[in-house]
């Protein structure tokens, strides 16, 4: 049975779970111009959550069912602990005409498809810098085997009812709020521990760098501005220079200078190991969410 294509220029997007991740995606998508806010909806009973979305033109219903009925693409953005109940509750409305997406950490695609009674499901691991168009997003979807122009095209994997066009739609949507990658689902826990949770590690680093500036005598506002711009600049150098971060680090550390004195302190206290441990621990926690 062929899957009805979703019209790129008219489809409507709904979020089940109007929280921080949903808001970040919605803000980024609207900011990018890919979707007008009138084509986006969600539902919440909390006035603060409602006004957060209504403030940039998103329609806020009172019930999840209304969101599903109003949407062609439905993003499940509730916590992993509740996603099963939420999908099961909405299952009667999740027709094959709708493209379903989950951003929930650790929840496996096969389980999502079972609960939804639909294989037209895509797993996505974004992060909150989507709100400013700088997300790191990874996609995984099972796609049907199909022949295209007499050549054989095996996209990702077999068995799903998501189509290549569905994958292109999701790639365009999340590509509008940052960079996208595709990866096998078995990597998703590690991906979640690194890029899903990673912004929080960097926020702590920025806060600590600013505290260091204050400890060295800087006014708080100047210290925070310098810390955040330094991290933004360093990340931009890695993304744009094509150089390895180790080389970029060596380019800053002058012999007998200030930087190597600071690096020595970091290395003495296991800075690298601490960051590695954070990613590994978050990936482990993500694995705990799967059935
Ligand atoms: N916050 C982040 O940086 C990231 C979050 N995620 C994933 O996104 C999902 C949401 O995470 P957050 O936005 O951080 O959590 P959140 O707690 O900010 O948002 C979840 C929202 O769902 C609502 N909710 C709870 N039960 C509901 C129900 N039955 N029907 C409708 N809404 C319901 C809650 O009131 C809350 O507003 C999680 O699965 C998480 O793993 C993925 C990547 C990054
Ligand atoms: O902390 C969490 O569980 C979510 C998933 C990745 C980032 N935030």
UniProtKB/TrEMBL annotation:
Compartments where found: Cytoplasm
PROSITE patterns: P5CR
Record keyword Amino-acid biosynthesis present: yes
Span of the signal peptide: none
Pathway: Amino-acid biosynthesis; L-proline biosynthesis; L-proline from L-glutamate 5-semialdehyde: step 1/1
SUPFAM superfamilies, sorted: 6-phosphogluconate dehydrogenase C-terminal domain-like (SSF48179), NAD(P)-binding Rossmann-fold domains (SSF51735)
Cellular component annotations (GO), alphabetically ordered: cytoplasm
EC number: 1.5.1.2
Record-level GO BP terms: L-proline biosynthetic process
Pyrroline-5-carboxylate reductase catalytic N-terminal domain residues: 12-106
UniProt binding sites for NADP(+): 16-21
GO molecular function: pyrroline-5-carboxylate reductase activity
Catalytically driven reaction(s): L-proline + NADP(+) = (S)-1-pyrroline-5-carboxylate + NADPH + 2 H(+); L-proline + NAD(+) = (S)-1-pyrroline-5-carboxylate + NADH + 2 H(+)
Binding site for NADPH: 64
Assigned keywords, A-Z: Amino-acid biosynthesis, Cytoplasm, NADP, Oxidoreductase, Proline biosynthesis
Domain of life: Eukaryota
Residue span, Pyrroline-5-carboxylate reductase dimerisation domain: 185-288
Family: Belongs to the pyrroline-5-carboxylate reductase family.
Name of the molecule in the record: Pyrroline-5-carboxylate reductase
Taxonomic lineage of the native organism: Eukaryota, Viridiplantae, Streptophyta, Embryophyta, Tracheophyta
């Amino acid at each position: 049975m062929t899957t009805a294509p979703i019209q790129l220029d008219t489809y409507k997007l709904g979020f089940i779970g109007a929280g921080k991740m949903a808001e970040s995606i919605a803000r980024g998508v609207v900011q990018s111009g890919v979707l007008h806010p009138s084509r986006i909806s969600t539902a919440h009973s909390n006035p603060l959550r409602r006004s957060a979305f209504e403030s940039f033109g998103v329609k806020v219903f009172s019930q999840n069912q209304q969101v599903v009925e109003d949407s062609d693409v439905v993003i499940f953005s509730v916590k992993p602990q509740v996603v099963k109940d939420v999908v099961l509750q909405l299952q009667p409305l999740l027709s094959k005409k709708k493209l379903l997406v989950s951003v929930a950490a650790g929840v496996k695609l096969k389980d999502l498809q079972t609960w939804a009674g639909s294989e037209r499901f895509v797993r996505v691991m974004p992060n909150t810098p989507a709100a400013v168009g700088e997300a790191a997003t990874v996609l995984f979807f099972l796609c049907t085997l199909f022949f295209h122009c007499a050549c054989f095209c095996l996209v990702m994997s077999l068995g799903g009812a998501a189509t290549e066009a569905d994958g292109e739609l999701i790639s365009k949507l999340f590509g509008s709020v940052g960079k996208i990658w595709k990866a096998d689902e078995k990597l998703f826990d590690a991906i979640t521990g690194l890029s899903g949770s990673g912004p929080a590690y960097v926020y702590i680093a920025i806060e600590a760098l600013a505290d260091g500036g204050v400890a060295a005598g800087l006014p708080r506002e100047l210290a925070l501005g310098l810390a955040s711009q330094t991290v933004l600049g360093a990340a931009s150098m890695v993304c744009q220079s094509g150089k390895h971060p180790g080389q970029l680090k060596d380019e800053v550390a002058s012999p007998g200078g200030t930087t190597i004195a600071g690096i020595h302190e970091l290395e003495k206290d296991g800075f690298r190991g601490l960051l590695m441990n954070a990613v590994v621990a978050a990936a482990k926690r993500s694995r705990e969410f799967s059935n």
